[in-house]
Amino acid sequence: MSKLYVGSEVGQLRRVLVHRPERSLTHLTPSNCQDLLFDDVLSVEDAGKEHDRFVNTLTSQGVDVLQLHELMVETLAVSEAKQWLLNNQISDFRYGPIFARDLRAYLSDMDNEHLAAILLGGLAYAEVPIRSASMLPKMHRPADFVIEPLPNHLFTRDTSCWIYGGVSLNPMTMPARQRETNHLRAIYRWHPDFANNDFIRYFDNDNRFYDNANIEGGDVLVIGKGAVLIGMSERTTAQGVENLAASLFESQQATQVIAMNLPKHRSCMHLDTVMTHIDIDTFSVYPEVINHALETWRLTPKGNGDMEVKAMPNYMQAIELALGLDQLKIITTGGDNYEAEREQWNDANNVLTVKPGTVIGYERNVYTNEKYDKAGIEVLTIPGNELGRGRGGARCMSCPVERDGI
């Protein structure tokens, strides 16, 4: 396997991690979807077909696509990884010591393919054939989840994100997503493609409670030239940003972190739902959220383990200075106020750049795609009528593990 390194948002994308939505979506219902952070239930078959189109578009651009489910199966084949995952995901504190022991024993006898499907997609009490002395199963209805499904694994961008020569194993904010991080921990530690590689891991202590230091990959843009742009959204905290910045500076993987204070609401759940980097000097922006009024800071290392935090006049100037550009080009969300708001909600700004000036985006965002086209940005469109219901576009659904710098 070649070098694991992500040097920018717009350099040639070489390898990416995705997750085809499967079993987890079959467990989404109108009564539980909100708790699982989805606004609606999806057609499982159509969502799978749309995801296949996404993967085919990536491979047509010469991108090597890794599938999370396959990596999980191959990781579970390593006995140490399997034992670690079962101990962590089926812990005594989550289930009580009696039921945890019985459940672990039941799961450890499964073949790895089936076990991966359950860890990713969930399990109901009715599906567990074991008898346990524990009170827990007796207190639940058959349709209740023993293991909650993880439909948000579809958005591989958030759980872990590669920043130059390292990966951040992100402490997720929402309980519905916190188990995802351990799956990536296991893959990066034990899967043969990663175990034999030399790279840095941030937030990788599974015995540590990271408390208020939350960070999610949708808020992290590796804009290149040693700079990282991070949005402080409803899912990423200042504590998370400062801890990550300190680690990046200590490992000399970044020379500056630009932090933007975003409104804390669902329509701009992450920075990349309102702003993405689409060419070396060009960003896609939803101006209702991303504007000069946003507080912006620049964090830089002092060299003694400390860092300097400096307020910047605005985000554009901070990015221009970081990238050595005279002027940024901004492409705003298309259409009138109503159309722009609708298209932003449907991830018009959440495009994935595969090389400078070429992006993948949902075909339904016609006004924004037209603006990209007029600005010389090639849009490779994919259907997103089902996938978009989870509030995430092509960038959300992809975790680059190898990408050129600028």
Give a short overview.
The chain has 406 residues and is α/β, with parallel strands linked by helices. It has helices spanning 23-26, 44-60, 68-76, 79-89, 92-95, 97-108, 112-121, 156-159, 175-178, 180-190, 192-195, 238-250, 315-323, 337-345, 366-374; strands at residues 5-6, 13-18, 64-67, 123-124, 145-147, 160-163, 166-169, 200-202, 220-224, 227-232, 256-261, 275-279, 282-285, 296-301, 307-312, 329-332, 352-355, 358-362, 378-382, 399-403.
How does this structure look, described?
- The protein has 406 residues and is α/β, with parallel strands linked by helices.
- It folds into two domains: 5-67 and 151-403, L-arginine/glycine Amidinotransferase, Chain A, CATH 3.75.10.10; 72-147, Pentein (Orthogonal Bundle), CATH 1.10.3930.
- It has helices spanning 23-26, 44-60, 68-76, 79-89, 92-95, 97-108, 112-121, 156-159, 175-178, 180-190, 192-195, 238-250, 315-323, 337-345, 366-374, and strands spanning 5-6, 13-18, 64-67, 123-124, 145-147, 160-163, 166-169, 200-202, 220-224, 227-232, 256-261, 275-279, 282-285, 296-301, 307-312, 329-332, 352-355, 358-362, 378-382, 399-403.
- Helix 3 crosses helix 7.
- The two termini are 22 Å apart.
- InterPro entries: Arg_deiminase.
